[in-house]
Structures are given as structure tokens and as C-alpha cells.
Amino acid sequence: MKALISWFGSWSMLAKHFLFLSLGTLVLLGGLGYINLREAEGLFRKQVVSDAQVIIDRTNLYMNAYLDNVQNILLLISTREDLLNVGMEKEASDVLRSYANMNRTLYKSLYLVGVDGHVISNSQTTFDIIGNPEIPKLLEKAKQTYGIFITEPYQSPISGKTVAFVLPIQSSSTESLKGIAVVEIDLVQLTNMIAQFMNTKNQTFAIITNKKNVVHSFDVGLPLSSYRLLPYHTSVYPPELDEGFVDQVSDLPVGASEINGPEGDLVAVKSGMNNLGWYFIAFYENSFFYQNIASLYRNFSTAGVFWIFLVLASTYMISRYITLPVRTLVAKMDRVRDMEVLHTIHATGNDEIGRLARSYNAMMERIHHLMQETKEAERRKKHFELKMLQSQIAPHFLYNTLACISSLAKQHKIYEVRETIKTLVGLLSFSFDKSTEFVTLADELEGLRMYAYIQKVRYGDKFTMEIDAAPATLSKTILKLTLQPLVENAIFHGLVPLKREGIIRIRAKCAKDKLIITIRDNGLGMSSEVLNSVFEERHKAPSKHRFTGIGIMNVHERIGLHFGTEYGLSIFSLPEIGTLIRIELPAMEHEHTEKNK
């Protein structure tokens, strides 16, 4: 979690601002759109269900009126019990045919059935040929029933799928059952009349009895797509509704419910049972409720696109006028490590960012000026320190040298006296030359020879010095008085205490653009503790044996100051073995150094 927070914290202001606005927009528009669309869908669903309930109620009224009409026909037929008498067959058939012709859209077949099983139909010829196996069953049931009754749907050879309305006819003289009047209704016509306003692309209906039998008929005149919402078995003809679906629908409560259909969820609106004992159920495809609110989707989509455009425009303005200048300022501040180059920001605006940029430029100019003054003061300080050290010729060195000259004079060694004085004058002239701090390696070695000559006059054959410098190194640049303090340290601390003759070997060569000089002696050497203290000698008082106040640490710091910290001294020493000092300098020609200076 901490890593995630740290990673998010490293994002730029622009990225954070864009993420914040994007998420805010998503939550705001998404939540608002979801709430409004759900409310709109709910209102539309409520309205559709309410309209469906009204249609269902009106359909039930129509069905009840249908029942009343059938009952009236049956009652009219029952008043003509004489039609069941022998010899009245033709008149009975004509009466039934007249009733059937008057209500052709309602009734499919009409029958008068005597108690002996003799049947008279409005289509007598067709009946005599095809027959109807359901008629005897209806007669047997009528013998056990008083009053009109309605059958469950069945398949009639003459009427097709139908429902029969049956009324027993009592004899007026004997008050016994004389026969029955039967009306088989036209379920296809009934289904078509209801389908005109209930069967559309997104809605359909079903009529189911209280015994879970399907009443409505399959109309071959309608395309199969009209029946796609309900699970019809098309492997049989006519297609039939799935029994499991019928059971599920029959168990639904009165009102609106949701049920699974073959092509998605359906909303089922179920009516109460009408006078026929039937339930009317209207089915609506669930997606239908969203189709009519597509305009709301488009409105929210348009608002979302417009808002995203505003977010992008706002982000661009922030990037252009705030983030980019701030990032530029940060990039410039990251480069402040190099104060040799003045890093400024181009500022044109008069807002807070512009004022910040101008303040930064003014601050950088002041810092740069102060840094230049500090560096110049440091450089002058180092220069004056060197001049002071160069001018502080140790009194003991002059005293000892003059004492040696006096001793030589008493011995009448005129040549040695002359050479010693000449060497001393040359050494002092070389040391006090204030024209430059840089000399060639050849000049530095010449000054070193003069110093070594004076020390040999004093100590005799206590040591010898060997110099092996490659010719290419003699013209290279070196700081004045770099080698003399190191050789001086080797003589007084390494060789003089010996009871034998010591050797100092000086080597110089060029390797990989570097001038490498080694000073090696076979003197007393140093332990690791003493070696570690060598670089602290700048804090101690100079030795009385020194020619100047320049020590090993001074030499190392001077080299780092003028050439860089990658150059300087490396010292290796072992007790009773000797000491090796390695000096690394840039291999620069003396003329080039003078021009740079």
C-alpha cells in the first residue's frame, strides 16, 4: 500500500488533476445517469404495466361479454326444446345455421344433442362425414351437471382447437334431461382479435385456464417471429407452449412479475380470473422499457462527451500555463548543481507563475554572483597562502646552509663555497619567482637538484638521488614546489636517521593522458598509524628542517584545487622497507596551461 501511495505521489500535477476530474466526471455523470435512467425506466415500466392492466381489464370485460353472448344463444336454443323432437332435424339444423351465421366471428360450430345421442349440427353434412368424438363426453358430463358449463380446451375435428359451452335442456313436461345445446367457439378468431392490440415485436400474451391449460390458439397467418418471446415447441403442429413455462406462469401472482423467456427476461402482467375461469397474461420484453428512453442515453452521452472535452481543455490549460512552467522551473533547479552556468527561465506572463519565474531568475543571478565572489576569494586565499608559505623560508634551513658555507670557507674549499652559494641563490630565485605557479617538469626537477645538492653538502654521502624522467614528460606542466616537499620529507624522516646510505629514486612517465611521478626511498618507512597521520600534518606546526611551510597535505590539496579531485597523491609505506609516493597529474603541455590561466 505504501508503495502504491508513493507511486501515486510521484505523479505530476497534470496527471493527478486529469485523474481527479476524470473520476469525478465518471462518478457524477455515471451516478446521475444511472439514477435518472433507472427512474425513467421505472416510470415507463409503471406506465406500461398500468396500460397493460387497463387493456387486460378491458379484455376480461370483452371475455365476460363474450360469455354472456354465448349464454344468450344457448338460452335461446334451449327455449326450442321441440327441435329435439323426432322429425324436427331439418328445422333444428336451419335454426342452428342461422344463429351461427349471425355470430360467425364468435362461434365455430353449434350442436343440439338428444339424450339418446342423436346430434344435429349447423354443418350437418360435415358432421355426418367427420363426426366429433367429444360430443358423447359432453352429453355424459351434462347428465351430471345442472346449468351451463365450460370445458377445457380440446381439439375438435370440425372446429379445430376450441372450447365448448354446454347447456343441458330439460323437458318441460317430464322435467328430465331431454338433451344438450353445445357451442364450440372459434379460438383462432378470438386470438386474432386480442392479438391486434397485444401481439407486437416486444409484447405478446397468453390465456390460461385455472387448470393450467392454454386457451389461445396458434394463428398460422402470423410469422413465427411473433411467437419468439414465449417458449413454443415448433417441432409439432400447431406449435405448443412449453408445459413447464405454462406451470410457471400459472403460479405467478396477480399483477406484474418478472420471468425468464427464451430470449431474455420478460415482465408478465397477470389478470385476475374472469367469469370464464381464464387468466389473461401480457408479456413484455424487458429491453422494451429501455428503448423508449434511448433519447435520454443520447443526452447523457452528449453531456459526457462535452464534459470530457471540458476536462481535456482544462487539463491542457493547466499543462500550458501552470504545469509546464513549474516543470521547467524544477528542471532548471535540478541543474543548479553546476553554478558555472547561469540557468534562467524565460518568463513573459504577469501571473503568479511569471512572477515566480522572475524571482527565480533574480535569485539565481544573486547566487551565481555570490558563488563567483566566493570562488574568487577562495582562489585569492589559496594564492596568498602559497605565497606566504613560499616566502616563509625556514630560518634553520638558511642557518644550516650558511653554516655549511662557513665551514667550507674555513677549509679553503673555494670551489665548493662558490658552487654552494650559486646553488642557494638559484634555489631561492626559483622559489620566489612570482610570475606563475606552474612550471615545466624539467624546471621542477632542476630546482629539486639544487635543493638536493645543498642537502648533500650538509649531510655528505648520507643519500643519493636518482632521476629517470621520460623525455616526453619534461615539457609537461606541474605546480611549482610539488616534488621538493616530498623529497624533503623522505630525506629528514626516512634517510637521515639511517646508519647507512639511502637512495631516492624519482621516475616520471606519461600513461593514458596522465603524468605519473613516483618518489621512492629505502628509508625507515612508516606504520599504518603514522601513515594515516601524514594527511593531518597541515594542522601541526612546520618542522624546523623544512625549506618552506609546504607539507604533504598542502601538496595534495593544491593539486586537487588546480586540476580536480581525481588527481593527487597516493602513499604506500612499510616499516624498515621504505616509502613510495605516487603523484597523478594531467599530462598537459606547459604552453597550454599558461593560455588557460
TrEMBL record:
PROSITE patterns in the record, alphabetically?
Answer: HAMP (PS50885), HIS_KIN (PS50109)
UniProt-listed CDD domains: HAMP (cd06225), PDC1_HK_sensor (cd18773)
Catalytic activity field: ATP + protein L-histidine = ADP + protein N-phospho-L-histidine
Q: Name one GO molecular function term.
A: kinase activity
Which coarse location class applies to the principal site listed for this UniProt protein?
A: membrane
Gene3D superfamilies with a match to the protein in the record: 6.10.340.10, Histidine kinase-like ATPase, C-terminal domain
Protein EC: 2.7.13.3
Q: Which domain of life is it from?
A: Bacteria
Which residue range or ranges hold the HAMP domain? 320-372
Question: Can the keyword Aminoacyl-tRNA synthetase be found in this entry's annotation?
Answer: no
Keyword Acetylation among record annotations: no
Q: Which InterPro entries match?
A: Bact_2-comp_sensor_kinase (IPR050640), HAMP_dom (IPR003660), HATPase_C_sf (IPR036890), HATPase_dom (IPR003594), His_kinase_dom (IPR005467), Sig_transdc_His_kin_internal (IPR010559)
The protein's topology relative to the membrane is:
Multi-pass membrane protein
Where does the record say this protein resides? Cell membrane
The UniProt keyword set, sorted, is: ATP-binding, Cell membrane, Coiled coil, Kinase, Membrane, Nucleotide-binding, Phosphoprotein, Transferase, Transmembrane, Transmembrane helix, Two-component regulatory system
Q: Do you know which Pfam families this protein is assigned to?
A: HAMP (PF00672), HATPase_c (PF02518), His_kinase (PF06580)
Top EC class for this record: transferase
Coiled-coil stretches are 360-387
Transmembrane region(s): 304-323
Q: What is this protein called?
A: histidine kinase
Q: Record the organism.
A: Paenibacillus chondroitinus
